[in-house]
Design goal:
Low-confidence stretches: none
Mean pLDDT: 90
Strand order of the largest sheet: 1-2
Shape: globular
Structural class: mainly alpha
Largest sheet: 2 strands, parallel
Radius of gyration: 19 Å
Order of helices and strands: HHEHHHEHHHHH
Distance between the termini: 67 Å
């Protein structure tokens, strides 16, 4: 009887741990994104004429804008530090349960680049199609004013997004949900829905696109157990969007330009 109680207590603690980790980051973002989507859908302005600005300026004073940007990026990876602490192993590889063992870095990086090619082009096509159908708001991923530090900060923002999402959604949740006895496809589906949910502020089309990406990432991660390819792919996709958007909007304003 005591053993059963200990098992139930252990499972309960794991669920509380998962809830706390998500409440500190991506779960919180998902709730805000759902509320924001409801706000957008009930607004008098059509969804296609609305804009979501990523990486906005946080101050009209350059030095404070930089300080706020760096602080935001730094505090944004705190949930990652927490999951590393929770899943750290005394024996090497210390982060093996998160899918990181420090080996085969070159091969994993190459697979990450290949993933960008597989996901990036269809992703652009989905966004453009969704904009035409009114499924996406216009996304401005480069909202920062032009300063000497703008590109480095945008690259750091891309790194923060990659690290936060893949460490938590793939590494941490796969490890903990397996520990709770979930099957592989239950984990893939649930984590993909979470990934799609915190992108809902961009419109219903973003849910569909990120759900598909989550299913692909989850399936591949369940087979390989290696996190680095997904960190590389996510970083390159976001870095390209954050830094390359102003050029794309200027080159093809009819496709990428924001509503007036």
């Amino acid at each position: 009887m005591g053993g059963v109680n200990r098992v139930a207590s252990s499972r309960s603690r794991l669920w509380w741990e998962i809830a706390i980790v998500l409440a500190l980051g991506l779960g919180q973002s998902a709730i805000y994104a759902i509320v924001q989507l409801v706000y957008r859908l009930t607004d008098s302005t059509p969804l296609a004429d609305q804009t979501a600005t990523l990486n906005p300026s946080r101050s009209d004073r350059e030095v404070f804008d930089l300080i706020y940007q760096v602080l935001g990026i730094g505090f944004g990876v705190v949930p990652v530090l927490l999951v590393c602490f929770l899943l750290w192993q005394d024996r090497r590889p210390h982060l093996g349960r998160l899918g990181l063992d420090g080996t085969r870095v070159g091969g994993d990086t190459g697979r990450g680049i290949l993933l960008v090619l597989v996901i990036g082009i269809p992703g652009i096509g989905l966004y453009l199609t969704g904009r035409a159908l009114g499924w996406f708001v216009a996304v401005d991923p480069g909202g920062l004013a032009a300063h000497w530090w703008t590109v480095p900060v945008l690259l750091l923002s891309a790194a923060r997004a990659s690290i936060q999402e893949e460490f938590v959604v793939l590494g941490y949740l796969f490890a903990r949900l397996r520990q709770l006895g979930w099957g592989t496809w239950s984990i893939i589906l649930s984590t993909s829905i979470l990934r799609a949910s915190y992108h809902l502020y961009q419109g219903p089309g973003a849910f569909v696109g990120n759900l598909a990406m989550g299913l692909l990432f989850g399936w591949l991660f369940s087979r390989s157990g290696r996190l680095l390819p997904f960190l590389v792919a996510h970083f390159l996709i976001d870095a390209t969007a954050f830094v390359g958007y102003p050029w794309a909007a200027a080159t093809w304003p009819a496709l990428f330009g924001l509503p007036g």
